Automatic annotation (TrEMBL):
Record Gene3D superfamilies: Glucose-6-phosphate isomerase like protein, domain 1, Winged helix-like DNA-binding domain superfamily/Winged helix DNA-binding domain
Keyword set, alphabetical order: DNA-binding, Transcription, Transcription regulation
Origin: domain of life: Bacteria
Domain HTH rpiR-type, chain residue ranges per copy: 25-101
Protein's UniProt name: RpiR family transcriptional regulator
Source species: [Clostridium] celerecrescens 18A
GO biological process: carbohydrate derivative metabolic process
Record-level Gene Ontology MF annotations: carbohydrate derivative binding; DNA binding; DNA-binding transcription factor activity
Transcription regulation as UniProt keyword: yes
PROSITE patterns cross-referenced by the UniProt entry: HTH_RPIR
Length: 269
């Protein structure tokens, strides 16, 4: 069968010097070696092919063999072991998958370019808090058009192993009856009364608060441990009657931050 698109671990986008979001190409060849029970020599050959995926398209099997001080038969055996019909099939299929991954990362960088406007220290604070509360109870809250965002965050956190509950119940926050250590809230205006009250309860109980709000100065943002300011195209459109990408941007930023957190957590395992 050969490799699938998910078998090659090409690490995702990140913020780099100059506050630009870019793609970082990095192959986790040892995961592949473990999956296909490759020898040390076979792992070395595969790593060479992945790191030089463009050049090998113009190299015969014997040239690649010479570069790695092995026989052509060893490389052909590797290709068969990984489910390919031979050397040519292997290098072309690997190149196709790597090129596809690279294009996806470039498109993703375009989509997430606005993240560069958010100060790095705020993004880092978010990641630090989430990692800190990896095994603690997390509460998520939002109302109105922001409510589906809270539901999405809850599900995403749940499937990635966090202990999270979406609730707007005052009784839960009042005395922190569930023993939560982190609260995540979303409010476009940053002044939503219901959410502001929950934030006040969280502060009274010394619970960390992460908020996603519009960029304008607002009560919820000022009252949060970490406030992630999101560009709001229509600050005066309280009823969301016009097209507004605030809600979409919240999800994009959240997904970006989650990808970074999960990558760092995986590296620590």
């Amino acid at each position: 069968m050969g490799l699938g698109m998910n078998d090659i671990d090409i690490r995702g986008y990140h913020k780099t010097e100059g506050s630009k979001v870019s793609g970082l190409m990095k192959f986790d060849v040892y995961k592949l070696a473990d999956k296909y029970k490759l020898t040390e020599t076979e792992t070395q050959i595969l790593n060479y092919i992945l790191e030089n995926n463009q050049q090998v398209l113009h190299m015969a099997v014997r040239e690649v063999a010479n570069q790695n001080f092995v026989s052509a038969a060893t490389i052909i055996k590797l290709s068969k072991k990984m489910g390919y019909t031979g050397y040519t099939d292997m290098i072309y299929r690997l190149n196709f998958m790597i090129t596809s991954h690279r294009k996806n990362k470039e498109r993703l960088s375009d989509i997430t370019s606005f993240i560069s406007d958010i100060p790095d220290e705020l993004l880092n604070d978010f990641m630090s808090r989430l990692k800190k509360h990896r095994n603690d109870i997390i509460l998520v809250s939002a109302t109105g058009f922001s409510s589906p965002l809270a539901e999405y965050m809850e599900r995403k956190l749940l499937v990635t192993g966090f202990r999270v509950i979406k609730t707007n119940a005052y009784a839960v926050y009042d005395k922190n009856r569930l023993g939560a250590s982190l609260v995540i809230v979303v409010s476009k205006s940053g002044e939503t009364d219901t959410i502001a009250k929950l934030v006040d309860y969280a502060n009274e109980n010394q619970v960390d608060i992460i908020s996603f709000t519009g960029e304008q100065s607002n009560y919820i943002g000022r009252s949060s441990t970490v406030n992630i300011p999101i560009l709001d195209d229509k600050t005066l459109d309280d009823r969301n009657l016009q097209s507004n990408y605030f809600y979409a941007r919240v999800i994009v930023v959240f997904e970006y931050l989650m990808s970074q957190v999960l990558e760092e957590l995986n590296e620590c395992q």
